[in-house]
């Protein structure tokens, strides 16, 4: 984070502390419960948000060497990312051009390319069709038309995005325009040097947007997290700034008010805060004092009351030795336990209420501006209603 940004945030937080307040939007925001419970709304989200927008898939450190690959289909489209011999990163639909079987599973390294497990059609790392067993049965096809289907991939700031739509234009995507003024902020973090520690998947019975919502306000901390998060963070005290469709919220640790000198706060800003970035449409990028958590939320099938939450933890240094391993395992467990036992347990009860039709709309208060910004951004992208500009004062 740039020096000027840290200074401005410190000034804002000092003001909130002095006045006993927090960042406020101009007005209360209401959202129909159908946004969380409607199958029609979910289908629109799947066809638009999870096909046509850049989806954060990984960090560069997960694909370091030529032949490194990873696969996933959380977006609803089977995807394959591969590091090429020249260092570039490529993305493909993970489906053999013959009969559609996935040509790779999980993650790993394939120096010699990929082979379909169905009929052993094989492909180079760059997606070109290499070999067809029994080729005499396919003499009429043009081999150039039977490579793996490419998709747009963007790698920058140690982060990797993919657009899961195989029919979209493959022209380079300007991720800086997509990030807005956050681009310079991400450039300052040097995340390319981080190391992947672990990934865990949760499958709660809630809408995917409710999973995002849990990260977007500090209003609930003392009530829902009295023994876990609340002792560490102020309730209802956080900053809020929108960047196009994206957002940054800074939650404030209670240690913040114990530091008298702004220069010390600026130097150790992460020790006294927690920076939560909403990367549109489905990612919470949580920058902690000594590590990085990335939470990615996806619809789970066609049920609006189910989702997958993919948590990946990254550390600034490679984890070596039993002591470091135990330390980061404990951090990972704490994050999962807090979310599972507190946020998700209550969230599933809320979702059942939404599905029952007992409630017409939900309300995001002026003191919950990140929630309003997120849902207004969704409405704008989906075109489900006139977009609402959320101004924060």
What do you see in this structure?
With 393 residues, this protein is α+β, with helices and mostly antiparallel strands. The two termini are 22 Å apart. It has two domains: 252 residues, Naphthalene 1,2-dioxygenase Alpha Subunit, Chain A, domain 1; 118 residues, Rieske Iron-sulfur Protein (3-layer Sandwich), CATH 2.102.10.10. The protein is globular and about 80 Å long. It is 28% helix and 26% strand. The mean pLDDT is 93. The longest helix has 35 residues. The relative contact order is 0.18.
The assigned structural class equals alpha+beta
The secondary-structure element order is HEHHEEEEEEEEEEEHHEHHEEHEEEEHEH
Query: How many E strands?
Result: 20
CATH topology of the largest domain: Naphthalene 1,2-dioxygenase Alpha Subunit, Chain A, domain 1
**Largest pleated sheet:** 7 strands, antiparallel
Q: Order of strands across the widest beta sheet? A: 13-19-18-17-16-15-14
Low-confidence region ranges: none
Average predicted confidence as pLDDT? 93
Helicity range: 25-40%
CA-CA gap between termini: 22 Å
Helical stretch tally: 10
* Percent in strands: 25-35%
> What is the radius of gyration computed over CA atoms, rounded to a whole number of angstroms?
22 Å
CATH architecture of the largest domain: Alpha-Beta Complex
Shape: globular
Number of domains: 2
SSE blueprint and pairings:
Blueprint: H1 3-19, E1 29-32, H2 34-37, H3 39-52, E2 55-59, E3 68-72, E4 79-83, E5 89-93, E6 107-109, E7 114-115, E8 122-123, E9 129-131, E10 150-151, E11 153-156, E12 159-162, H4 175-179, H5 182-187, E13 195-202, H6 208-213, H7 221-224, E14 233-243, E15 246-253, H8 262-267, E16 273-279, E17 283-287, E18 292-299, E19 307-315, H9 322-356, E20 361-364, H10 369-382
Antiparallel strand pairs: 1-20, 2-12, 3-4, 3-6, 4-5, 5-10, 7-8, 8-9, 11-12, 13-19, 14-15, 15-16, 16-17, 17-18, 18-19
């Amino acid at each position: 984070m740039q020096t000027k940004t840290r200074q401005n945030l410190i000034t804002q937080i000092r003001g909130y502390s002095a006045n006993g307040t927090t960042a406020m939007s101009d007005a209360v925001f209401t959202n129909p419960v159908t946004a969380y419970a409607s199958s029609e709304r979910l289908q629109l989200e799947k066809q638009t948000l999870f096909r046509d927008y850049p989806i954060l898939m990984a960090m560069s450190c997960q694909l370091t060497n030529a032949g490194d690959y990873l696969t996933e289909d959380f977006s609803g489209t089977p995807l394959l990312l591969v590091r090429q011999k020249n260092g570039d990163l490529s993305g493909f639909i993970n489906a053999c051009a013959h009969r559609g079987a996935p040509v790779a599973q999980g993650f790993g390294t394939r120096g010699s390319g990929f082979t379909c497990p169905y009929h052993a059609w094989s492909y180079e790392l760059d997606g070109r069709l290499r070999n067809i067993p029994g080729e005499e049965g396919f003499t009429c096809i043009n081999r150039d038309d039977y490579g793996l289907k490419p998709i747009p991939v963007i790698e920058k700031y140690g982060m990797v995005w993919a657009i899961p739509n195989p029919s979209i234009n493959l022209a380079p995507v300007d991720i800086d325009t997509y990030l807005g003024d956050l681009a310079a902020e991400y450039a300052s973090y040097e995340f390319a040097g981080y190391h992947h520690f672990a990934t865990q998947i949760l499958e709660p019975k809630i809408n995917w947007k409710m999973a995002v919502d849990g990260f977007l306000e500090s209003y609930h901390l003392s009530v829902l997290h009295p023994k876990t998060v609340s002792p560490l963070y102020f309730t209802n005290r956080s900053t809020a700034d929108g960047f196009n469709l994206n957002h940054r919220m800074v939650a404030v640790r209670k240690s913040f008010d114990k530091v008298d000198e702004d220069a010390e706060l600026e130097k150790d800003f992460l020790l006294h805060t927690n920076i939560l970035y909403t990367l549109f449409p489905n990612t919470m990028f949580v920058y902690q004092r000594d590590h990085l958590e990335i939470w990615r939320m996806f619809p789970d099938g066609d049920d609006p009351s189910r989702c997958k939450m993919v948590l990946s933890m990254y550390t600034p240094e490679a984890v070596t030795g039993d002591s470091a391993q135990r330390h980061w395992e404990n951090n990972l467990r704490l994050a999962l336990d807090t979310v599972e036992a507190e946020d998700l347990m209550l969230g599933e009860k809320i979702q059942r209420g939404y599905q029952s039709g007992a409630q017409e709309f939900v309300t995001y208060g002026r003191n919950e501006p990140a929630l309003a910004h997120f849902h207004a951004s969704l409405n704008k992208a989906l075109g489900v209603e006139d977009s609402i500009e959320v101004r924060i004062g």
